[in-house]
Amino acid sequence: AEIAVAPATVLGFAALACAPVAMPVAEVLARCARWPAAWIAWVARTGAALPGGGVDWPGDWTGALLLAVVTAVLVLLGRRLLHRPWLCAACGLLLLVAVVQPPPLARVLTGWPPPGWRFAMCDVGQGDATVLAAGPGAGVVVDAGPDSRRVDRCLRALGVTRVPLLVLTHFHADHVTGLPGVLRGRRVGEIETTVYEEPPEQAAFVRREAARRGIPLTRAVAGEERRTGALAWQVLWPPARPAVAPDGPNDASVTLLVRSGSLSLLLLGDLEPPAQQQLAHSPDAARLARVDILKVAHHGSAYQDPELTRLVSPRAALISVGVGNTYGHPSPRTVAALRAQGATVLRTDRDGALAVTGEGAGVRVVRD
Ligand SMILES: [Zn+2]
Hints:
Number of domains: 3
Distance between the termini: 38 Å
CATH topology of the largest domain: Metallo-beta-lactamase, Chain A
Number of helices: 13
CATH class of the largest domain: Alpha Beta
Radius of gyration: 24 Å
Number of strands: 17
CATH architecture of the largest domain: 4-Layer Sandwich
Bound molecules: zinc ion
């Protein structure tokens, strides 16, 4: 990118100087400056998309102090290493491995993800991002969470490079803002959303991102059934023609009943009690009796339909929730109601990312 800095700067300033006296000349100069500037932007974006392209650093005084210590240690070490080429090469290699973190090596060192994982819930803070294993390197992703970096890091750790389908349950920021992180460096076949396009600016953001990458955008409606390898799923909600308009984006959440082998998972998005009640009384209700794993609706909020909770009676209930969130999620009442039905309750704020393995009586939820 360095060679493009000089022409971009000179042409840019020349355009600025010409603008007050000869606007057409300034326009031509600005157009010429666009090329080197676009090259710099491309290098930056490509670099940022590489694994380990960004490092989270605390933005407070602790971060500043840490940076000073790291710099001092590097300067001292650098002087000594200069005289030992082999040690220098070994340190370079170690640094490369630490930054890139190749998934097979990370798996051996950290035990994450557990071998044969079927479903995983990423720890994306206050929001949702769930992954359904769909073959080697492939995962159907349900929601992108609020943070591009966190969802990207989670998918990288899971070794997901191909996403045949990304479902965005509804357009609230805690489910869609992380979209660029899912798309980063991955082949995404299709993005499926709810039919209810609220809030409009978030729906427009999703349309723009999909168009930019040429990814087809479709809408999920109840009754749709799909399969890829051992993974099969059915859309239970929203109905194609709802009897009444949904009571806000949450109640229009795409709801999925997923099967991987004999293991079942119910994903309720952020459904509120009105839609939950309708589900509990729908013709699909029989299929919802005793699922293995429940992605608890709306980050474990207090507003749940007790009838649906009783019907589903999951073995394990997973709650995606941010540490110290201001909404009071998850509600102790909801957690108690799930436990009363015999469910083991796990939550990403305390347990980190979660992965489900095994089936039948051997179902296990592994913490990151
Ligand atoms: Zn949400």
